[in-house]
């Protein structure tokens, strides 16, 4: 389990996480009653870390990411673009190498 879990769990939850479920079903609750690491997936008990373990962190599409995070594709694209900009600034050679390899495929 990850140390960023707001419930301070040491193992994956074996039933629905109350903070994760609150984040999906009651988004206007105060922050201390929600989890910033929630995922909109009852099979994963609304826990991002369980979902990552079950799916190896491999979503199939931007649409799936949007659905799991209770957002939309435009928001996911904006977040990914901002992350890419930050990565390019921090690791310019690595990103350029990756983009060159991608072009050669």
Structure description:
This protein has one domain (18-104). It is 51% helix and 0% strand. It is built from 5 helices and no strands. The chain has helices at residues 18-25, 48-55, 62-68, 73-90, 92-104. The protein is elongated, with a radius of gyration of 16 Å. The relative contact order is 0.10.
Biggest beta-sheet profile:
none
Unreliable runs, pLDDT <50, ≥5 residues? none
Structural class, from helix and strand content?
mainly alpha
N to C succession of SSEs: HHHHH
Helix content: 40-55%
Number of helices: 5
Mean pLDDT: 87
Total count of domains: 1
Task: Kindly estimate the percentage of residues that lie in beta strands according to DSSP.
Answer: under 5%
SS elements, strand count:
0
Task: From the structure above, extract its key features.
mainly alpha; 5 helices; about 100 residues
TL;DR?
With 105 residues, the chain is an all-alpha fold. It is 51% helix and 0% strand. It has one domain (18-104).
What's the SSE blueprint?
Layout: H1 18-25, H2 48-55, H3 62-68, H4 73-90, H5 92-104
Helix pairs in contact: 3-4, 4-5
